[in-house]
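Subject: mismatched residue count in predicted assembly?

I count 458 residues in my input, but I want to confirm that the predicted structure covers every chain. Input:
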Amino acid sequence: FAIAHSESRRAAAGPRTTAPCPVTAATARAHRPCASSKAATTTAAMAEYEDKALEASVFAKLSKLPPLVQPAECDELKALLAKAADGKAFIVQGGDCAERFMDCEAERLEAQLKVLVQMGAIVGQATGTPPVVIARIAGQYGKPRSKPTETVDGFGEIMSFKGDNINGYEPAERKWDPKRLLDGYFHSAATLNYLRSLRMSADLSSFKDIDVGFTASSAAHAQNVQIAAGVKKSGKTAEQAVFFTAHEAMQLDLEEALTRPVGEAHYNLSAHLVWIGDRTRQLLGGHVEYFRGLANPIGVKVGPSMKDDELADLVTVLNPHKEAGKLVIITRYGSGKIDEFLPKHIAAVKATGIPVVWQCDGVHGNTITANGGLKTRAFDDVMAECTKALAIHRAAGSVLAGIHLEVTGQQTVTECTGGCALVSEDDLKTNYETWCDPRLNAKQALEAALTMARELGP
Ligand code: PEP
Ligand code: MN
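Triage response: the counts match. Full output below for your records.
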């Protein structure tokens, strides 16, 4: 394990030890030396539990429950990501910011899969290759928060909502409860079971009926109609409905309980891909330490606070064997900042010789507070960041392999402004459902895919 940059940073943090790191026993079992426990104290964002006996019983159970995905599926995704990094496929990753247990119902799940599969079909139509569809689903229940507490009228200063895996949204339910992790596992299992069963369903043919009537007022409408017609004519529906699952692996004790040895390797078998958030990607932190022991394809969010040499170190630690399709760099700067940061970050990674898969998260750098206090995003800002990412990669001789967006399959949600769906700031309160970040509604999501398709197309 010889890495010049990161070795010096690790050395600065104190002596290394090969003893199992408290948060990365799986990593240690793979005989990869753990960072010093001093370094691991930087582990950010995780919930902790008071009732140690209850906590122990929850983790004992979680570590015995069956895997939700197969290692071979994770390997298959890795191979597809390698193709995308080569410009031979395009990734559409999307879903809720925070999935909710209460939304685990057939109609909503079907709508969510449908919008993602349709987005994939739209970009696939432009590139002429099958899309790689990755859903933020079946486990996207844990959120890092910028502040641990928040002020709620009538309740004063209470713990922030950290996702259904950790606490409840209702102010009275904000205490961290380890039993929720089991609820999370069973909701993930039910979700994944239903989504997989849909691939066998006759109704899947309706996934090909993409209605672009709502873009009639747009100058791009004729082109959109053509793309939609192309999707309808194209090959087998079941093949188009191939999807993978992903979530932010924020709560490491949970993720580790769902990590299993497979031969010499360790896979997190709760999802095909897991990613590290922009708040938890510290080079010496527990998240990076855990992730570097995984065989899954992994992602890491990169925002404006990332330094060029820090990114070079990070990709070296996370993809030491230079595997193609292994590491997705999910950039999220904001449409006004991408020009300043992405070119330097591309150059820094290129200099390491480490292959990465570049994905643009067009949403997280573009969150603003609207008049009235609701968090929102403007459709045009989201698309500006995605189309700029494509142009910047092309100019740098690099490849934008995909996009990453927060979207819902629900048609009538009003959380993001703009697009042909014409959601105004005043409309936001009409149907604002999210408990965390604002999502593009189903029409805005399709319009986002159409916009990318027009840019990607021949
Ligand atoms: C998210 O993807 O919901 C998220 C919290 O993103 P980031 O880590 O980029 O802020
Ligand atoms: Mn989010």
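DSSP finds 15 helices and 14 strands in the chain. Marking this ticket as 'not a bug'.
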